[in-house]
Amino acid sequence: MIRLGVNLDHVATVRNARGEAYPNPVQAALLAELGGADNITCHLREDRRHIKDRDVELLKEQINVPLNFEMAITDEMVAIAKRVKPHAVTLVPEKRQELTTEGGLDPNHYQNLQKVISDLKEHDMLVSLFVEADERVIEQTKQLGADAIEIHTGNFCHEMDAARSSQRQWELVKPLMESAKQAHEMGLQVHFGHGLHYSNAHWMQAIPFCEEANIGHAIISRAIYVGLESAVREMKSLLNDSRFAPRLKGLD
């Protein structure tokens, strides 16, 4: 089964747009759990544009599934993670001017990355790196001591949405399959995330060793029409129900 991590950042985005106390990310998390969410993800950004510090604390205290804390590699975020103690942390690159995370993390840009990973693991957190489907970076992730990778699917999703043939779709998914196999053979958990939505998430079923998909914007958007519980349930089915699995017969 592919686990579904539901990212609630944009519940907080709506709340903050009017400076109100609603919608509440914790209430949203509990509805997501009812829909079958296997974990809850939130990203506390440096500029606090959506999730706030108190959201992270309340989520950790009140949800019944693991909390995945997305964070930049800064002293401030490391200190918060060590205080809150989420089940898992996903280390991501972060630029203040970006609308959303634009790509995977390059380990070469962070001199203290190995120390940060070791420090977080000593506090009983599973550590994942948000990276591109790149053989070199996956090898570095293992060498640095991380437990998992989350492969950035943003570019994959844009290209998949534009594809006009099954052969082209197959060409796009093959690199993800190869990266997942490489990471699994190295002993890393394999997660995917960014840009996945209701017209492309079913492709995760074609990827061997895919253990988890973290999805936020698409689910929160769908929830406007059908409610959050139903939106989560639909996405969980796309990831796991064999009726939605891509038909790859005859493609190589």
TrEMBL record:
It is an enzyme of class 2 (transferase). The keyword Transferase applies. The record marks 150 as: Transition state stabilizer. It is found in: Cytoplasm. The active site is at residues 43, 70, 194. 1-deoxy-D-xylulose 5-phosphate binds at residues 9-10, 45, 50, 100. 3-amino-2-oxopropyl phosphate binds at residues 7, 18, 195, 216-217. The keyword Transferase applies. Keywords: Cytoplasm, Pyridoxine biosynthesis, Transferase. Its main location: cytoplasm. It comes from the Bacteria. It catalyses: 3-amino-2-oxopropyl phosphate + 1-deoxy-D-xylulose 5-phosphate = pyridoxine 5'-phosphate + phosphate + 2 H2O + H(+). InterPro entries: Aldolase_TIM, PyrdxlP_synth_PdxJ, Pyridoxine-5'_phos_synth. GO terms for cellular component: cytosol. Pathway: Cofactor biosynthesis; pyridoxine 5'-phosphate biosynthesis; pyridoxine 5'-phosphate from D-erythrose 4-phosphate: step 5/5. It holds the Pfam family PdxJ. GO terms for molecular function: pyridoxine 5'-phosphate synthase activity. One of its GO terms (biological process) is pyridoxine biosynthetic process. Its EC number is 2.6.99.2. Catalyzes the complicated ring closure reaction between the two acyclic compounds 1-deoxy-D-xylulose-5-phosphate (DXP) and 3-amino-2-oxopropyl phosphate (1-amino-acetone-3-phosphate or AAP) to form pyridoxine 5'-phosphate (PNP) and inorganic phosphate. Homooctamer; tetramer of dimers. NCBIfam families: pdxJ, PRK05265.1-3, PRK05265.1-5. Belongs to the PNP synthase family. This is Pyridoxine 5'-phosphate synthase. It comes from Pseudobacteriovorax antillogorgiicola.
